[in-house]
Protein 1
Amino acid sequence: MSGQIVSYRDAGTKGPKVGLSRRDRDVWHCGNRILKAFANCLDPDETPQNVASHQDQNYELLQSAQANQESAQANQESVQANQESAQANQESVQANQESVQANQESVQANQESVQANQESAQANQESAQANQESVQANQESAQANQESAQANQESVQANQESAQANQESAQANQE
């Protein structure tokens, strides 16, 4: 019936509106039984009628009550949908909070890694500087040894041993 209210006034007869499909006629009769039961609740002394009539003083009230019931049911369904949506939103917020916490922990770990890398780089620079100073000291020692070799032959043998030791030290520093 596509949500239309069909009454005797519309049909001009005392039966279902002419031209309705079988399904619509079944819905019409079912609706009339519901309206009749509701009318009996309002006025139980009245003899039940087969159909609700536009002449019935409660017809508009029954139509309004039926519309109110449908509206209440739609509202309940809307409330339920809203509650489900709110629950889904809460779950999404919780998941987002967990994601933020995981990201913060990852950032903290990255910062600690960067700090460790910076400390390692500083240690490497200090080691390189110490190696350079050691090489310079070895070069100065070699020069002193050469000058000492010219002055004293006995010192040459000692200087050769010292030079050999310096070469091994230099090789160890290169490794």
Protein 2
Amino acid sequence: MQPLHLAPAPLRGPAAEMRLLARNLIESAALLIALTVTERLLFGPGFYAGLVQHPFWIVVLLAAVQGGLYPGVGAAALAILMLDQPPRPVGMDITQHYIQSALLPMQWLATSLCIGLYRQLQIERERHLREENARLRETADLLAEELTRTDAALGAAELRLIVADPEPVPGAGLAARTGARTGAGSGTGKDGP
């Protein structure tokens, strides 16, 4: 089993975006099919048409908020295709019936466009921040490598300087000469006055 911090990075690029879009559309289609089957099996055809808020709203909103513009519009289109339109009531004008039937799908489409565009801007901003973060990490890694190389070169230069110089500590010869003179002036040396 691979540790969590060594997990491979998620795929990026157009192919990964297409897979994500396909996954979002499949999820939306599965939810819409589940809602349609639930309506048919439990409540009977046309039950959702009588509700104040159609349950397909949930799928359209989820797709737009989760995936952005394209999954939101795709979910709205799938919801429009799967919508069970109620029959025209007796005495209602056909034009009025079509306008009333088209109102809910147009609301889904407009909502998925508005929320999807806003979410798409957020997704693009997050992608830009991830790319900038990766670039800055790469720059930091390069700087750390250069610092390590410079530190090693400095250590090698110091070592060469120490090995080449018989007097490794600057001023050590001066201290030895000063100590010799002090000892000579105290009368303990052989060369005293």
Protein 3
Amino acid sequence: MALESISLQPNQQWNSDLGSLSVVHVVDRQHPRGLKVQLLVAADGEENYYDLHEGDTFPVAGAPWKLDRILTHDDVRWTVLLEKVT
């Protein structure tokens, strides 16, 4: 079964043969689109940072993924949900 979703929390890095992903920051800057996530994607020998809001897309090893949701549990705990775009 192919990987379809990834869940990330603070101080967590996700690793697989596709690459590595981690959330650098979750920031609330009173943006009209809500919370912003800075995501680090290390794949294909490159490291790329992406500033994302819910619904934004980014590549992982040539495949499109999207920031599906940001769940906040309190001021310092959150979960970022990523989904592969099919």
Protein 4
Amino acid sequence: MGLENEEWIPDPYYRDRSAHIDEITTPFTDPLGDNIRFFVVPLTNGQIYLTDDGNTILDLTMQHPEYDYHELAQHYQNIASQHQLFLSADGVLGIVGTNKQVALLAGKMIQVIRKINELW
């Protein structure tokens, strides 16, 4: 599985394992009041990929259809890059690292999601 070092996940975080992907639900909320969540996908050689699966941008564009994602994409990309995350052309946030870095990677993912959410 993606998380071999799970002791970093304190309550009230929630972890769900299915289909070789770990889902992390944090106590932090988005503008819709939903808990921020992301996924941990195991790669090869002890590498993992954390992703929001596009949920951050999708939720914001659904909540505010008056804003064009493509017009704001560079701003989102700048926020992601400041924390070593990438933002794909279709709005998926992600970061790759090792199993041992999972707490650091999760912290970066949470920071970026919260900063993007604050724009709205």
